[in-house]
Design goal:
The chain is an alpha+beta fold and 555 residues long. The protein folds into three domains: 116 residues, no CATH class; 118 residues, DNA polymerase, domain 1, CATH 1.10.150; 181 residues, hpI Integrase, Chain A. The protein has 19 helices and eleven strands. The longest helix is centred in the middle third of the chain and has 22 residues.
Length: 555
């Protein structure tokens, strides 16, 4: 492809018409081209398509004939990449459009080696942006259904909330580590703005932050995992040479460990709750809805995202809800550690109360705003859960109650086969169950925990009862004991205190030391405290501080 070069200029006649190739200044007196006037233009024919229509590549504005020839030579080599036939013609037309666009924008022509590789691999020829590839990847995942729908929704939330504004228009082949890091820089900026708004003296600005949460290290890790998953697919398709997200370093997003609601923590939370409640009441800008104490209580900062009740606090809660219709559900989660979705999805067909076993074969999850049934979280999640005699008795009583409801509803009853249902037999929404639990905890005057924290509490109770980590891991149906030990290395205060007492009791002492003795040092075995520790006044019953610390003997 030579271009058949010629020259033209922008000179005009007296009436304003452009002379173009007819300008007399384009040639010298001897007929040769004038090197100082006009620009070089070319026109070359491209192989016709199946319809036989003639196609040309026209280009101009070159400073010399050599520059024109080099352009058409490179263009011809690119246009020769596709094979003959319909598919080859379509690819050739795409390459032709890329050549025209590069020339029009004064950009380098597409790289031959890269274009040749993409064509042979059946990949898109033009460089895709991350946003373009995300759209195709997201649609393909939805069609193939090779990812859990809830997981795909989580990926989509990450993209729409954090990734899109930074990476949408970035070309895949321009995605380097600093580019990915910009996503997390932007997250840090938004976190700082949210914290500043919360600390503002303007009640209107503070009110605008209600319901918004800081994006923490764990969520950042999940966002990076989303980018890494998408780029891994692009890498397999040879659209990127390496996965830049895999090289991005973030603060460790370690699993949150449970923190026990001890007396000092409950008192500090109660004070913070009262202070926040008073601030909301005196705010000059009133919210559209009446102030609800429950919402303020729920939004008050806790020592950790994962909080665990003491046994005494759990007993207070269970006593307070003993007459609740769904008492059995919360009892089951509290003592046997079922996940929320597993409890809502549990079926009578999978329960053998005579043998004291419950298999969590199905779970309910909220996908968007729709409740859907699916397989358990992991392969080990559908293992049988051993039930104690008290829990079996509680489930039998609930079963009798449910049969009475079924008779009362008659033909209007919906037979879902679920253990825990609405009064008319319909399935429970996991989100509704979570809020229902939190409202019950608030009504009982207890410090807040999430429904999932009852599962953490069940693990802590199991360890406190003397069960080893492997037994507790089997109860929770974790995929490995390591996960259990990483999360539940904490123990209840009374367990830790008992361990400390047991350690000091192993060392015999001839000289009595400690409080009341004339020497200092460790107490002898005979001077060790016996039984449950008491308050300074000898009374084991704690005083209320706005929120229940627990019943008599609580920590």
């Amino acid at each position: 492809m030579t271009g058949n070069g010629f020259k033209r200029c922008k000179c005009r006649t007296g009436d304003g018409r452009e002379l173009g190739a007819r300008c007399p200044k384009l040639r010298r007196a001897n007929g040769s081209w004038n090197p100082t006037h006009g620009s070089w233009y070319g026109k070359a024919e491209v192989p016709a398509g199946p319809d036989g229509k003639r196609i040309y590549l026209r280009a101009g504005g070159f400073a010399s004939a050599a520059e024109l020839d080099a352009f058409y030579e490179r263009a011809g080599r690119l246009l020769d990449i596709p094979d003959a036939g319909t598919e080859g013609h379509e690819a050739r037309m795409e390459i032709l459009a890329m050549i025209r666009a590069a020339h029009r924008r004064e950009l380098p022509m597409p790289d031959y080696e890269e274009l040749h590789r993409k064509f042979r691999a059946g990949q898109p020829l033009q460089a895709m942006t991350f946003g373009d590839y995300w759209a195709t990847w997201r649609a393909r995942r939805g069609r193939l259904q090779d990812i859990r729908e809830s997981t795909l929704i989580s990926y989509t939330s990450h993209y729409e909330t954090h990734i899109r504004e930074v990476l949408e228009k970035v070309r895949l082949d321009r995605l380097f580590v600093p580019t990915i890091e910009a996503v997390f820089t932007r997250i840090d900026e938004k976190n700082a703005a949210l914290l500043a708004a919360r600390a503002s003296e303007d009640p209107g600005i503070r009110a605008a932050t209600r319901g918004k949460r800081i994006t923490g290290p764990v969520t950042k890790q999940r966002i990076r995992a989303t980018i890494r998953t998408v780029l891994a697919a692009a890498e397999r398709e040879h659209l990127v040479e390496f996965n830049a997200a895999a090289l991005v370093k973030l603060d460790s997003g370690q699993r949150a460990k449970g923190v026990v609601w001890t007396r000092p923590r409950v008192e500090a939370f109660a004070a913070a709750f009262r202070e926040r409640l008073e601030a909301e009441r005196t705010a000059s800008v009133r919210p559209a809805k009446p102030l609800e104490k429950f919402r303020v209580w729920l939004a008050t900062t806790r020592p950790s995202r994962v909080m665990v009740w003491t046994p005494v606090q759990l007993g207070t809660f269970l006593d307070a809800i003993a007459t609740e219709r769904l008492y059995a559900l919360y009892h089951l989660v509290a003592f046997r550690g079922l996940r929320r979705g597993e409890a809502c999805g549990a079926r009578w067909v999978d329960a053998d109360l005579d043998e004291g076993l419950l298999t969590t074969a199905r779970q309910l999850t909220t996908v968007g705003k729709v409740v859907k049934e699916g397989a358990p979280k992991t392969e080990l999640s559908d293992a049988a859960v051993a039930l104690d005699s008290v829990t079996v008795s509680v489930l039998r009583a609930y079963r009798a109650q449910q049969l009475e409801e079924r008779l009362a509803w008659g033909e209007a009853w919906t037979d879902t086969g679920r253990i825990f249902t609405r009064e008319d037999g319909r399935e429970l929404s996991p989100d509704w169950v979570s809020e229902h639990f939190e409202r019950l905890a608030f009504a009982a005057g207890l410090p807040p925990i999430r429904l999932h924290d009852l599962r953490h509490g069940a693990a802590t109770l199991s360890l406190a009862a003397g069960n080893d980590m492997k037994t507790t891991s089997a109860m929770l149906r974790h995929s490995s004991v390591r996960i259990t030990s990483d999360i539940y290395t904490n123990v209840l205060p009374e367990v830790a205190r008992a361990a400390a007492e047991a350690s000091v009791s192993l060392v015999p002492r001839a000289v009595p030391v400690g409080e009341g003795s004339e020497t200092a040092g460790l107490p002898s075995v005979s001077h060790l405290p016996q039984g449950r520790p008491t308050d300074s006044d000898g009374d084991t019953k704690p005083q209320a501080v706005g929120l229940n610390v627990g019943r008599a003997g609580g920590t």
